[in-house]
Amino acid sequence: MFPLNKQKEKKQYDITPQHLSPVVLHRSKRMVLDSIGVGLIGSTTDVFELALQHCKLMYAADHISSVYGRRATKLSPTLAAFVNGVATHSMDFDDTWHPCTHPSGTVLPAVLSLMDMMPAHSKPTGLDFLLAFNVGIEIQGRLMRFSNEANNIPKRFHPPTVVGTIGSAAACARLLSLNPSQCSHALAIAASLAGAPMANAATQCKPLHIGNASRFGLEAALLASQGLEASPLVLDAVMGVAGFDAFYEDYVPQPLELSQNDGHVFLLEEQEMGFKRFPAHLGMHWVADAATSVHKLLVEHGSGNISPAEIKDILLSVPKSKYINRPFPDSEHEARHSFQFNACTALLDGEVTVQSFTPAAMRRPDLLSLLSRVRLQHPQDNPASFNLMYGEIQVTLAGGDVVKRRCDTFYGHWRNPLTNESLRKKFRSNAGVVLSSEGVERLIDVVENVDRIGDIGAPACVYKRSITCLKYNYFLQF
């Protein structure tokens, strides 16, 4: 792995803000904006409230780090990282990368909480913040690219609980300017705090996966900074000794190659991030887009509304993945992980939205009637990979006509990313649940100019406004 400290050593190379290309800066700021937005709307959910009340009840007050959507509430840095991570994933609305993980939700809450605890005279600049954030994202991508298993929809461990914990530790280690030995210990400590089973997907426990990954990564870096040591071999492949390959059995690490100018090229330079248009498991977006196309066609050639009486049969062609095959979901979390629910919602309404997962929407007789008509098939050419899969819906009408539509790459996928305007629209909708419209726009401005905070060459008005708004409780509460 590459060193995360600021001190240059022989045969090692620094990662500095200068390695953040315009493309990486642009893409990582998009990630920060989206992650804050889904965290803010996530602060209105039941699971976030449960996590927050638990922390306030069980732990002594420690007024250091800010909490999403709660102006008057502060917690210890590790607990703030935890609850903000829970908020980020509470609706399964956060970003997704390939190989599959949710990278931002495990890193951003930890970095924000750590910055809150740093002394006023040593707060990081905006570029320092973005560099630490990108180091945390990069570590996750590199680790997963050392495994073929990581390319597939997961079956054993929820990926953010594995690579996200280590990514959080790496980002915090960078922000703390730990030396190479301390960084190695931080990542190894994080590995001992990593991992959660996929059996808890589609439950209220799944958001805790992201919260714990953020919290434990921060704790690992703080413990390493205090001198706690761990095995330097955890991320290596050592025969007979389980390290990171305990999570991915085919894990084979490789040395990182320098570019021609001896600089590091971030993976984010090569591959965009996937941003969701509605709050559900990533696999749902293929079938929802295909079903939306069928809805539009039927509306154009029918009465204007979809009636279950018009539909005899619904056949979905999707990858085989047990935890997202849920014919009749009983909760909002199960619905977010149900091919059937999301396809039928899109077919009935022409879209899937935040409101689609409310109890009233889930109990609609027309929706339940459509669900009873759904069948699944798993074609051999449709692998369980977010980079290769497709979603297809075939609707047989009562009169015998058949309508079929297929989605190979939905809008929001890393191959077809949201435009800046679409991303801002999503952010405005999410953040506007908690903030005033003025606060939302100020927050967009701050994030889009965050790389200029602390830069003495920046216009004074931008610098002063950003610092005044943030007060280094970055982005949280306006």
UniProtKB/TrEMBL annotation:
Reaction catalysis annotation: cis-aconitate + H(+) = itaconate + CO2
InterPro entries: MmgE/PrpD_sf (IPR036148), MmgE/PrpD_sf_1 (IPR042183), MmgE/PrpD_sf_2 (IPR042188), MmgE_PrpD (IPR005656), MmgE_PrpD_C (IPR045337), MmgE_PrpD_N (IPR045336)
Protein name: Cis-aconitate decarboxylase
Alphabetical list of Pfam families matching this protein: MmgE_PrpD_C, MmgE_PrpD_N
GO cellular component entries: mitochondrion
SUPFAM superfamilies noted in UniProt: 2-methylcitrate dehydratase PrpD
Annotated Gene3D superfamilies: 2-methylcitrate dehydratase PrpD
Function: Cis-aconitate decarboxylase that catalyzes production of itaconate and is involved in the inhibition of the inflammatory response. Acts as a negative regulator of the Toll-like receptors (TLRs)-mediated inflammatory innate response by stimulating the tumor necrosis factor alpha-induced protein TNFAIP3 expression via reactive oxygen species (ROS) in LPS-tolerized macrophages.
Cleaved signal peptide residues: none
A biological process term (GO) from this entry: tolerance induction to lipopolysaccharide
Occurrences of domain MmgE/PrpD C-terminal (ranges): 278-451
Primary location recorded for the protein, binned into one broad class: mitochondrion
Record carries keyword ATP-binding: no
Family: Belongs to the PrpD family.
GO molecular function: aconitate decarboxylase activity; protein homodimerization activity
Residue stretches making up the MmgE/PrpD N-terminal domain: 15-242
EC number: 4.1.1.6
UniProt entry tagged with the keyword Cytoplasm: no
Oligomeric and partner information: Homodimer.
Keywords, sorted A to Z: Antimicrobial, Immunity, Inflammatory response, Innate immunity, Lyase, Mitochondrion
Localization in the cell: Mitochondrion
